[in-house]
Amino acid sequence: MDTATDTLDKMAETFKLLGDRTRLAILGLLREKELCVCNIVDILHMSQPSISQHLRKMKAGGLVHERRQGKWTYYSLKVEDKPYIQQIVMEIPSQASKLKELDGPSLSTVSCD
Amino acid sequence: MDTATDTLDKMAETFKLLGDRTRLAILGLLREKELCVCNIVDILHMSQPSISQHLRKMKAGGLVHERRQGKWTYYSLKVEDKPYIQQIVMEIPSQASKLKELDGPSLSTVSCD
DNA sequence: TGATCATATAATGATATGCTAATATAAAGA
DNA sequence: TCTTTATATTAGCATATCATTATATGATCA
C-alpha cells in the first residue's frame, strides 16, 4: 500500500461518515453552535444511544471535538484544519431553525418537519 | 419531509457514493480522461462485474456520464454542475501514473501498488 | 450514601453494501 | 450464422451499518 492508497482509504472513511443523514444534520447543527448530546437528542428526536454513537464515530474520524463539563459533554465542529470538509459542512442545508427553542422560552416551539 | 430534508438525504446519498475506496479511485482516473470499463478493470485489477456495478451506482447518482460506442461503454466525470463535488474530485490523490500503460507500449508496465 | 441526570457502551436484529460466480445481452467480425 | 469481445445483470454470501434495548459509568445533589 502506497501513500496515495492510504489517503484514498482515509478519504473514503471520511465520506462514509458524511454519508448519513443523521450525521449531516448533526454537523449542520454544530455549524451554528457547540451543543451537548441532550440538545441534539431533543432537536433531532432520536434516541440518546443513537446520537451518542454517531458522535463517537465522528469524533474518531476527527470531524468533531468533545468537551466535558460537569454532567454534560459538549460537541463542536473540528474542520478548520480540513478545507474541503469545511466547504462541505457549509453546503449542509441550514438547521438553524431547529435551534430556536434553545434560545427561546419553551420547548413546545420545536419544529418537527 | 421538507426541502431541507430532501437535500440532506440527497447529500447523504452522494457521500455514500464517495465513501468507497474503489469509487474514489475510479473518479480519480476519470479526472484524467474518459475511460471504458475494460480500461478501469485492467488498471484497478478488479473484476468486471464489480467495476460495472460501481459505475452503475455512480451513474444513478449523477456523478458520471455514460457514452456507448460500438462494443465499448465510455465513462466520464459529470461534476461540472456540482461545484463542491468537483472540489472533492480534485482532492483525490492522482491516479495518473496508473494510466501510463494506456499511452505506452506495453501492459507489462502497469504499476501495481 | 443514595438518588437522579447525562452520557457511554454492549448486545442484538434488520437492512445495506460489496464482491464473486454465473448468466444474459449486444455489437463486431469470420 | 457462429464466435468472440465488451458490458450488464442476477443471485448468493460475507461483512458492515444503524437503530433499539438494556446496562454501565460518572457527575451532581439531597
Automatic annotation (TrEMBL), chains A, B:
The keyword Transcription regulation is assigned to this record: yes
Q: Which UniProt keywords apply?
A: DNA-binding, Transcription, Transcription regulation
Q: Give the organism the record lists.
A: Paenibacillus roseus
**Cited PROSITE patterns:** HTH_ARSR_2
GO MF annotation terms: DNA binding; DNA-binding transcription factor activity
Q: Does the keyword Transcription regulation apply?
A: yes
Q: What is this protein called?
A: Winged helix-turn-helix transcriptional regulator
The residues covered by the HTH arsR-type domain are: 3-100
